[in-house]
Amino acid sequence: RDSKLFRENEQTVMAALNLGLFIFVTTGIVYESQRGLNEHITNYADALYFTVSTLTTTGFGDITLAGHWGRMLSVLIMIFGVSLFLRLIQ
Length: 90
Prior knowledge:
Elements (H helix, E strand, L loop, with lengths): L3 H5 L1 H25 L9 H12 L11 H23 L1
């Protein structure tokens, strides 16, 4: 059964869940694809830091992904990040 609070805020809750899921999955992809290739990504926290800084388009630049596939993954994170934040704001 749904609660009244959930029904009133369903779109916001779903957008926040989608954002959280995206961050979790993308961080795993970054970690698995860069572990061993990138000296700056040695644990999940490093991958999470990179994902969130890229997702928010802050991009501090202290961690960058290696290779062409790394750059393409960064671009995808940025595009999806902007889209998800816009959806959350809606």
